[in-house]
Amino acid sequence: MAAAPTRRPTVSHCFDGAVLALGLGLFAWAVVAMFRHGTQGPGVEWLAIPLIAIIARFPMLLDRGAGGIEVGFDSCVLMFLLCTVPPAQAIVLWSLGVIVTQLPSDKRPASKSFNIGVGLVGGGVSAAIITGLRGELGSPQELLAVALGAAGYFAVDFLVSGISVALEAHSSLRAQLVQPGSLIAVACFVPFDSLGYLGAVVNRTSPWWVLCLLAVPLVTLLVATRAVTRGGEHARRLSVLFASAVRAQTLSEPRQITDALVRDARQLLGLKTRDVVLRDAPPASGEIGARLRDGRRDRWLVAPSQLRARSTSQADQTALEALAAVSSDAFARLRLGEDMTHLARHDLLTNLPNRGLLRDRLEHALLMSRRRGSSLALLFCDLDGFKPVNDRFGHAAGDAVLIDVAQRLRDCVRESDTVARLGGDEFAILLEDVRPTEVDAACERVLAALGTGALVAGHQVPLGASIGIAFGETGSSAEHLLRNADMAMYQAKARGKNRYVQYERSLGRARVQRLELLESLRTAVAAEDLRLVYQPVIQVDTGRIVGVEALARWTSKGMSVAPDVFIPMAEESGLVVALGDLVLDLAAADAQRLVAARGGPLTIGINISAQQLREPAFVAKVEETMLKMPDANLVLELTERDYVSHQAPDLDAMTYLSERGVAFAIDDFGVGFSSIGYLQDMPVRIIKTDASFSSAIDRDERSCALLRSITLMGQALELDVLVEGIERTEQLEHLRDHVGAPFAQGYLLHRPMPVAQVVEALRADTAPIDVTDKVTAATPA
Length: 781
Ligand code: C2E
Ligand code: CA
Ligand code: CA
Description:
Layout (H helix, E strand, L loop, with lengths): L9 H28 L10 H9 L3 E3 L6 E3 L3 H8 L4 H16 L6 H25 L6 H30 L3 H5 L4 H24 L9 H34 L5 H16 L7 E3 L7 E6 L6 E6 L8 H33 L9 H18 L4 E8 L1 H8 L1 H18 L5 E6 L2 E6 L4 H16 L2 E3 L2 E3 L2 E8 L6 H17 L5 E3 L2 H22 L4 E9 L5 E12 L2 E3 L1 H11 L2 H23 L3 E6 L2 H5 L3 H11 L3 E8 H5 L3 H12 L3 E7 L16 E4 L1 H4 L6 H16 L3 E4 L5 H11 L3 E2 L8 E2 H10 L17
Parallel strand pairs: 11-12, 14-16, 16-17, 17-18, 18-19, 19-20, 20-21
Antiparallel strand pairs: 1-2, 3-5, 4-5, 6-8, 6-11, 7-8, 9-10, 13-14, 13-21, 13-22, 14-15
The chain binds ligand C2E and calcium ion (2 copies).
One calcium ion binds next to strand 18.
């Protein structure tokens, strides 16, 4: 029995030293006395030393917590010795036994020396009581003396250990002595020690080997003791582990989890404060440990490896592993929660905050700015030039560009500002505590950062951004600010992209007007309230009309709205599909009149948008239109930008239709995308060079040469080349003399006209011309 104090205050140290000194003094006296009086006895008494060491390994643990009472039964050997050999000899043998037990144990040196001291002093007190009270050998008085001697030993051990612990822990002695289980301890201790007396009595009356019979009750008792001790310990550990597992479910901070882990480990192993630690290094020799996985860096829960009555170091190791597993689970739960919150609030691709998180930060920033009187700005950035990247190089390339853009935007602002991705190619930047000039500077930085373009699959592609700025004002909400910045961004796009525009109230009005206009267009399309005008196409050689291009016209509230305004609006809203169907119907209705007026084959060009081609019903609609205009050659015009954004279904539809006699033309050729490689894969028959190429052919030699090479290139690919935008006679002359393109269109030749007027023009243009060889577009395969 003995507590094992760790680092102790000086008083406690002195006390322990005094106990040891007293014990050693007693030992020295006994040695001297033994040699003076000589030794006696049956000869087996020397076996007492190993026996003490063995029995000491099987103490009984009473009470559950750390620092409970540990009752050793080795003192039964002391009782045997005191009743068998002279007291001095008994003390010497006992002392040697105690020393042999303690020295090789894995306790701290301080604990060992204290335990030796207590053992020796207790032995001395016991010897004094028994020698003084024994009376006649074999009398009941001797039995009583042995019982009192055992109780005396216990009392000394209990009292001295209690004082030592109280001194060390600065606690009251009473608290140390009045412990649950101390009475049970005495109740077990005294009868067990009497087993030593039984041995002495047997030894007096029988030959020495009869003593061996005592091994049976002794071993039974020791084994039972160990089973009780370990069973109790096992139950105690399970309850600690269970409580720890239950608690782990409720902890929400990493610190709480590690604190609880170390605390539980100490309680579970019954160790003192400093013995169990959580550290980066794995256990060294003489230590046991278990790995704690916290999802970031692994650490080790480490404790000293000890062989103890209550458990083995293997059992301790298993216990630590179980505890660490419980805590690792708690960490996994914590990290999972963190990940889920992160995922719900961030964009998967760029890892930037998403719209939800931006809105929260914006609300918070608005509150803070109101309190501090500072100002904040929200930038709404929409990328320019991103869609072609996605369409041409695929979504993986598009994703890579978005990730790159996200990083560039982050680099443009301070750490404290928020860059969020709203979806698609839309980003938002929240600048807190800024002055208007700083906002302008930030916008410039963003434009400069994106202006360098991106390298995609070995191609340098241009990038830019249209930025709308909204400043937080009193009373504005996050929703408000987002809407205003969005409106300003639209304005930046409308003013020519790659620029920034600050929100003003008038933008709001413009937006409302736009929405009203779109509604009005929707109504007009539904009511088939659109008209077509036709602009003739002429053959340059002869000046004769070979075809017409249908152009949509719309009058809203008595005002005509330009196609450049309503067509993009219809494209953005998806209305262009219905609008396009209407245009086909209107053209089909006019077709036969036009063909009749021409008196021969006539090409009718109709502008379409890529969206229409993606519509599954479109092919049927075109076939239906062709049936209604059997004598016309249908040309569908798509702008160059629409061609490069081709997707498989478009190409299939185009191939299908071109096999049935529809010719496809590339409108505004030359301004959309610089690469011409795509021409080879497309079922295209005509290119219409953009008006900007012909605008200066009569004034600038290089401009003329450029148009000539485009024409040559088109012809090399066996395409018909049509030059748009001929407004002056000089242009027409240059076209005829230097460029060599076969077809032309322009205000000089004919303006777009209502159908009745075109009919007139066609009738007036009566000279028969043979176009079958020259206008391949007019000749279905
Ligand atoms: P586009 O297909 O390139 O049509 C030619 C445009 O240039 C027409 O403008 C025409 O009036 C104009 N134009 C013709 N000759 C000259 C000239 O010598 N000088 C100048 N400065 N301009 C000339 P419009 O009718 O305003 O159409 C604009 C655009 O709207 C068209 O460009 C076309 O892309 C689109 N569009 C028109 N109608 C439709 C339609 O029914 N469906 C679709 N999807 N788009 C249409
Ligand atoms: Ca056109
Ligand atoms: Ca054009």
